[in-house]
Structure formats: structure tokens, C-alpha cells
Amino acid sequence: MTETNQLLRLLKEFPLAETHRPWARRIVDFEAWQGAIDLLAVSDWDFLGLWAEPQASDKEKFQVHMALRDGENTTVVVITLPLEGLSYPAVSGVRPGALRLERSIADLFGLVALGAEDMRPWLDHGRWPVNHPLSEAEPREIVPFEYDFLKAESAEALHQIPVGPVHAGIIEPGHFRFHANGEAVVRLETRLGYVHKGIEALMQGKTLLEASKLVGRVSGDSTVAYAYAFARACEAACDVEAPPRAVWLRAVMAEMERLANHLGDFGAVCNDAAYGIMLAHAMTLKEKVLRAAHKAFGHRLMMDCIIPGGVAHDLGKEGMAQIKAMQREVRRGFERLAQLYDDTPSLLDRTVGTGVTMASLAHRFGTGGVIARASGRSIDARRNPGYAPYDELDFDVPLEIDGDVHCRLMVRVAEIRESLALIERFTDGLPSGPLTRPLPAQEGEGMALVEGFRGEILVWVRIDGSGRILRCFPRDPSWFQWPLLEACIDGNIVADFPLCNKSFNCSYSGSDL
Amino acid sequence: MTPILKLLAKALLKGPVTEPAPEQAEIQELADKIDASAKVKLGRSLVIREIDAGSCNACELEIHALGNPLYDIERFGIRFAASPRHADVLLVTGPVARNMAEALKRTYDATPGPKWVVAMGDCAIDGGCFKGGYACLDGVDKVVPVDVRIPGCPPSPTDLLKNLLALLETVR
Ligand code: SF4
């Protein structure tokens, strides 16, 4: 009997939440929660997310949900622990990616993860006028917290380099604390939360359409993927499927977003290795994608084009022609750049062997996206658990194994080619028909996983009888990627940090919410 | 021919991809809207420090786009600097997350005068879709004085360019 089955067998005895779709949600007790954690320690289930909400029957009491995926069998399961008090057994001991989520739950709800290694506040910097904004939200005096950075100790003389929150050039804010021995980085610790906007609280009570706008601004560079995941979660909750034309148009948009962002990242990483010409050319190609998106869907980033129930914008003849022209140009232009990259030893010298991440860490942290696929961990939500229309197609999920900056670039290069091919297939095979299907106003819970350019985005929603949001939890892939950045910089030189950071390109806004 | 030579040869033969500057009349119109009480001469250049005060990062994408060869903002003498000490203009995005308010204020204080603040995007103007929450201050002007407001979510690079050129016009 494998561990996989043991976990499912353990859960089988517990009641199912009836309105949760498309995957099972089991309501467990304290022992079973602890038992599941023990099984996680010896199994390879992926940790997907952890969030809290008030109990339906008693708003004074809370429950925590944990989402898991069986890597082999594409099973996703949500485990719920209703709490009597204000604490629950920590998951971070066996899945360290959960740690920052636990710290955030403590900040937002006042719930404590028992046994967690790190209890420092995360999102709460002491600058909000209320305590625990998602539970009692008690007014308080604003007194900014001191943050206790971890100490690095060594026989060698170490120095600290504090960077941020306002740092580098045109970039989101965050604080990086380096401990360095001369040029070599001994430890990096990130402190984030600076762009916390309280999106989870803002979503509550909103209509699905209003909430969709907000979800599309959790991380603007992934606006399509977020709206896509949110729409799918709402549709699951209402047990409705979007019409075929909408399903395919969504995929066109999603691949265009992936293409644009990968092009930008490819150029930016080379630029950080002081190879500016690549940035200039890659950004020119990216601009072509954005302009085609504008012509085709009315918005350069395709914001608010995907809505619950379908899409808000059709693709006309003119738009289709624009996309085709863009495809030809980008394909031709990009191959020149890929060749140039291969042909430039001084560039390869900076990227090969720099910032190595290991597959075992990626697994323990639940890391997905380019970062995981560059270190040999083959996960892609389009494949597993899979969703329409990708589940009808054969497509490539590129894989590299060395986990360095170079591999992350190579995965992007392969995905740029794949996205170009997918856009062609999606536009060629576009079915006709309506763009939306109305969603009934009914109670329900839904969840969806969508592969954004950065990795898997999870969205979980609970909708009330009037079709408004009771609780929505959007989980950015960056939650599980930031910690790996800290790990991969160890032993590299300070000057390679920008290169490593760009090759990760984590979202600040996405994980600060 | 090696790839780099191919790329350079193509650029030489085809010429630059950079597009013409926006219409002067439009820029003048925008320039007239800026309060010119602080008429100062900065010559032909502006240096900008960008500050993300809680944006969703889409505004940053469009600022980045300004640097691409099609818009090529540097040809107008507009440059982005890493340090506020070198800046004439602070280009601020985001509704001002409370966690960023002090950093924004301190960056403003670190910028030598004369200086201008541009609030870019709907949420920088009044909180936009993030208005009314516990974590945001709903507008850059709640923390530092704002000279130019550029609506949009996000504003297009062209809108951004026009407004920055208009600002350049008033300080010339
Ligand atoms: S204005 Fe819109 S695009 Fe810009 S940061 Fe705000 S929400 Fe994002």
C-alpha cells in the first residue's frame, strides 16, 4: 500500500463538503489533520495552499483549509479543520512553503500555527489601523514593528547589506538583507508585505464581476491567468461551464500573456548580465505582442477580458489578422535572439552555473513554474490537474535539470516557442458560438488551478446565495518561489543577485496581496 | 555571418524602429494643465525615480515599455535613476499601501528640490479599485503633494509619454 493511498484512505472516513467543486473537500478532526501532516512527511503529495475563514455556523469560530495534490494521479483534495480555539497544528514542519502562509494567517486572523518555526509577523508591519483585519478587526494604535532579521554567525567577519524597500530601478518594493563575506553571499533574507493592499478583505461582499476585476489586479503581469482561475473557480462553484468559444479565447489570451512576459524576462535577464542589445530586441518583440493584444482584445494586458461565465471581448477578423502577423514577426525575430544567446560565450559565462536551485527543495516548498521545470520538476497545471482546452491537446512541457539561471532561460525559450505554436492552434480551431453563459446566483464553493507565466495560480471561492463573494483566496506562485531565491543565492557573489532575482522574477504584489 | 552581425546588419539596413514623437499640440494642451507656478529651468532633461507604493505591477510593465526602442523615452532627455538624490521627478504608482507610506515619504524627502510628483494610474490617484480598505491610504496625495495625475488602469505608454513630455515642457 503506497503512502498516497494511505492519505486518501485516512480522509475517506471524513464527511465531504457537498457544495465544493470540482475536487473533494473533507472536513476532518484534529487527529486526522495531524495524521495527514505525518503522512505528508513521507509522501510526495504537493502542497498547494493554506487559508482560513470563519465557520458558517458560528462566525466567532474559524476553520483552516489545506489543498494538496497527488503528483501521480492528478487527484486534488482540500482538507478542512474546524477550530475550537485559535490554533491549529502547523504544516510548515513538513512543507516549509506553508510557513509564510501560516504567518499571514496569524496576521490576518490571529490564528496560531502550533509548532511553526517562525512566528514573526509577515504581512502585518504594524502600520494598519486594525488588528487581525479578517477576523475581529479591532482598532489599534499604529506602531510600526521592528523586524528581527535572522543572524548569520561565522568565524569569518561578515557584513550586512540592507536593500530596499525602495530599491534598484523600476521594480516592486521589498527588503533584502544580505549577509556577505566580502563578495560571497552567506545568507539572504527577504522581508516582504510592503505592497499588501488587503485584497482578500476588499473582495468580500463584492459581486463576481467586481471581484474579478480585483483578482485581475493581484499581480498585474498575470492578470489573464488570475481572471482565468477566478472565472473557473466561480464556474465550478455554480456548476456551469463556459461556452466553447470562450474556453478557447481564454487560452489564446493566456498564451499571449505567457509569451509577452517570457519575452520580457528573457531580455531582462540578459540585460542584467550587461547584454543590453538583447533587452532592446526582446522588448520590441514584447511590444508587438501587447499591441496585437490591444487590437484583438481591446487592452494591452488583456485586463478584465476574462469574466466569470465566459469572456468580455470577442476576437474579430481584424484582431485575428493582427495576432497572425504578430506571430510571424515574433517567431522570426525570436529565433535570431535565441541564436545570439547560444553564440555569446560572455553571456553564457554569467548564466551557466549561477543561482542553482535543487529539485528536492522545489518539491519541499511546492515550487512550480519555470523555476521548478528548470530544475527537473515537471509540473504544469495545464497538464496536472489539467483544464479545458489544454486537456484536449498534446503540447510540450519543457524540462531542464541543472536548475541554474541558464536553465531557467532555456525553459522560457522553449515555452516561448510552445506558446507561439499554441496560439496558432487555438486561433485556427476557434469554435463559434456565444461568449458567455449566465451564472445562477447560488451558494457554492469552487477551486481552480491555472498555469500563469510564473507558475500555478490557485483560486478558491465561496459564494453566497445572492451571488456575492463570502471568501476568496488567490494564491500566487511566488509564495513558494521567494524562499528558493534565498536558497539559490548562497555562495554566489552579490553582483549575481540581480541576475538570480530576474531569472526568478517573483511577484511582490502577488504574494503580498 | 554570426548572429550578432546579422542582427546589426538588419538594424543598419532597416533603420530604427523608433516611432515619431507625439503631436506637439496635444503635449502643449497637457502642459497648460500643469500648475506652472514653479517655473524653473531644468534645461532639456528630466530624471525620474519610480516608486511602487503598492501597485499591482501592471503600471510598472508600461513604464518599462517606455524604454523599449519603439517609444525610446531617452531620446527626449528623460531618464530613470536608481537614487532619489538624482531625481527631479518621482513617478509614483499604487494606492499607497500603508506599509509603503513611510518609504514613499522618505524617498520624497530625499529628493532635492525643485521636484515634481506624478501619480500614475487610477489607484495612485484615489485608490482606484483598492479604495476603502484597511491597508491603503487611497491616493498618493495623502502622503506627498501631487503635480500631475495620469488616469488609466494602467495608462498606456503613449499617455505616459505625453504627460511626461508636457511636464518637461513646463520646466523648460
Ligand atoms: S492603476 Fe491599475 S494597473 Fe496601475 S497599479 Fe493600479 S490597479 Fe494596477
Give the rounded overall mean pLDDT of chain A: 93
Write down the overall geometry of chain B.
globular
* Mean pLDDT score of chain B: 90
Sequence of strands across the biggest β-sheet of chain A: 1-15-16-17
For the record, what CATH class of the largest domain in chain A applies?
Answer: Mainly Alpha
Q: For the largest interface in this structure, which chains are involved and how many residues does each contribute?
A: A-B, 55 and 50 residues
Largest sheet of chain A: 4 strands, mixed
What fraction strand of chain A?
15-25%
Radius of gyration of chain B: 17 Å
Secondary structure tally, helices of chain A: 17
Number of strands of chain A: 17
Please mark out the parts of chain A with pLDDT under 50 across 5 or more consecutive residues, or reply none.
none
Unreliable stretches of chain B, pLDDT < 50, 5 or more residues? none
H and E string of chain B: HHEHEEHEHEH
- SS strand fraction of chain B: 5-15%
Please describe the biggest sheet of chain B, giving its number of strands, its sense, and whether it closes into a barrel. Answer: 5 strands, parallel
Gross CATH architecture of the largest domain in chain A: Orthogonal Bundle
Structural class of chain A: alpha+beta
**Which superfamily, in CATH terms, is the homologous superfamily of the largest domain in chain A?**
Cytochrome-c3 Hydrogenase, chain B
**Oligomer kind:** heterodimer
CA-based shape of chain A: globular
Provide a descriptive summary of the structure in words:
The complex is a heterodimer of chains A (513) and B (172). Chain A has 17 helices and 17 strands. Chain A is of the alpha+beta class and 513 residues long. Chain A folds into two domains: 3-139, NADH:ubiquinone oxidoreductase Nqo5 subunit (Beta Polymerase, domain 2), CATH 3.30.460; 199-431 and 440-512, Orthogonal Bundle (Cytochrome-c3 Hydrogenase, chain B), CATH 1.10.645.10. Chain A has a four-stranded mixed β-sheet with strand order 1-15-16-17. In chain A, β13 (306-307) and β14 (310-311) form a beta hairpin. The mean pLDDT of chain A is 93. Chain B has 172 residues and is an alpha/beta fold. Chain B contains six helices and five strands; from the N terminus they run ααβαββαβαβα. Chain B has helices at 3-14, 24-33, 58-66, 98-110, 122-126, 157-171, and strands at 46-52, 78-80, 89-93, 116-120, 148-150. Chain B has a five-stranded parallel β-sheet with strand order 2-1-3-4-5, sandwiched between helices. In chain B, α3 crosses α6. The model of chain B has no long low-confidence stretch (mean pLDDT 90). The chains are: A alpha+beta (513), B alpha/beta (172). At the A-B interface, α4, α8, α9 and α17 of A face α1, β1, α3 and α4 of B. Bound molecules: iron/sulfur cluster. The site of iron/sulfur cluster has 13 residues of chain B, from α3 and α5.
